[in-house]
Amino acid sequence: QVQLVQSGAEVKKPGASVKVSCKASGYTFVDYYIHWVRQAPGQGLEWMGWINPNSGGTNYAQKFQGRVTVTRDTSISTAYMELSRLRSDDTAVYYCARGIYSSGTYHSFDSWGQGTLVTVSS
Amino acid sequence: DIQMTQSPSSLSASVGDRVTITCRASQTINTYVNWYQQKPGKAPNLLIYGASSLQSGVPSRFSGSGSGTDFTLTISSLQPEDFATYYCQQSYNTPLYTFGQGTKLEIK
C-alpha cells in the first residue's frame, strides 16, 4: 500500500533552517508529484509547494519563495523540504502528500505523511 | 491568486442529520475542487475530487456538487465518525493549490 513516512519532530531557533524528509513506498516514486502542506497550531491547511520527482522540477507558493527548497533523492524514494530563516510563526505541522491525476485532469492529494512538528523557539 | 471561502466556519449537528458545507471560489474554476476530511491529530483524507467524484473507499453518504464558483459537500446522514474538520481545495489555478479555511463539524 502507498505509504509516506516523514522524519521526526524538530525544535529550531529563529533564523535557523529545518529539513524534513518524506520517504515513499508502495508505488513508483517518480510517477507522482509530492506536495508539502503545513498547518499551524489550531489553524487551517496551507499549501507550500511541490516537486516532480521525475524531473526534479518544483513550484512554490509565493509566500514561501526564497525560503523553501524542495528536493528529492530518487535512489531512496525520498523527498525533502527545507525551510530557512525560520520565524516563530513557522511553528507548524508539516505534511507531505502524494499528488495524483484522476480522470486525466483532476489533481488531488490522495496519500499523506503522518506530519512533522517543527517548533521554532528561542 | 484564487481564494476559497468556506461557510460556515463551524457547524453543530446530530447523528443522522443531513449536513451541507459550502465553498466559494473567488473566480470561476470549472469543477476543479477537492474536499478533505481531517480529524484531530491526523493527516487530511481525500473525500471528493473533481467537485463530485467520490474517492475510492469513501462512504457513499458523502457527495459533492457544483461548478464555476459555488460548491457543496453534503453528508446525507451523519455518523459519529464524521465529526471532523472539512477543507475544500482548488486545483484549477495550477501550479498553485489553495485550501479553504476549513469548516469544523461538531456534535450538537
**Biggest beta sheet summary of chain A:** 7 strands, mixed
Binned strand content of chain A? over 45%
What is the ordering of alpha helices and beta strands of chain B? EEEEEEEEEE
Alpha-carbon distance between the two ends of chain B: 36 Å
| Tally of alpha and pi helices of chain B | 0
List the secondary-structure elements of chain A in sequence, H or E. EEEEEEEEEEE
User: How many runs of DSSP E, i.e. beta strands of chain A?
Assistant: 11
Radius of gyration of chain B: 13 Å
Mean pLDDT of chain A: 96
SSE class of chain A: mainly beta
Assembly level = heterodimer
Large-scale geometry of chain A: globular
What topology, given as strand order, has the largest sheet of chain B? Answer: 2-10-9-4-5-6
Q: How are the secondary structure elements laid out?
A:
The complex is a heterodimer of chains A (122) and B (108).
Chain A: E1 3-6, E2 10-12, E3 18-25, E4 33-39, E5 46-51, E6 58-60, E7 68-73, E8 78-83, E9 92-102, E10 106-112, E11 116-120
Parallel strand pairs in A: 2-11
Antiparallel strand pairs in A: 1-3, 3-8, 4-5, 4-9, 5-6, 7-8, 9-10, 9-11
Chain B: E1 4-7, E2 10-13, E3 19-25, E4 33-38, E5 45-49, E6 53-54, E7 62-67, E8 70-75, E9 85-90, E10 103-107
Parallel strand pairs in B: 2-10
Antiparallel strand pairs in B: 1-3, 3-8, 4-5, 4-9, 5-6, 7-8, 9-10
Question: Describe it for me?
Answer:
The complex is a heterodimer of chains A (122) and B (108). Chain A is mainly beta. Chain A is built from no helices and 11 strands. Chain A has strands at 3-6, 10-12, 18-25, 33-39, 46-51, 58-60, 68-73, 78-83, 92-102, 106-112, 116-120. In chain A, strands 2, 4, 5, 6, 9, 10 and 11 form a 7-stranded mixed beta sheet that branches. A 4-stranded antiparallel beta sheet of chain A has the order 1-3-8-7, with no helix packed on it. In chain A, a hairpin with a 3-residue loop joins strand 9 (92-102) and strand 10. The termini of chain A are far apart. The model of chain A has no long low-confidence stretch (mean pLDDT 96). By secondary structure, chain B is mostly beta strands. Helices cover 0% and strands 47% of the residues of chain B. In chain B, the strands form 2 sheets. Chain B has a 6-stranded mixed beta sheet with strand order 2-10-9-4-5-6, with no helix packed on it. Chain B has a 4-stranded antiparallel beta sheet with strand order 1-3-8-7, with no helix packed on it. In chain B, strand 4 and strand 5 (45-49) form a beta hairpin. Chain B is globular and about 35 Å long. The chains are: A mainly beta (122), B mainly beta (108). At the A-B interface, strand 5, strand 9 and strand 10 of A face strand 4 and strand 5 of B.
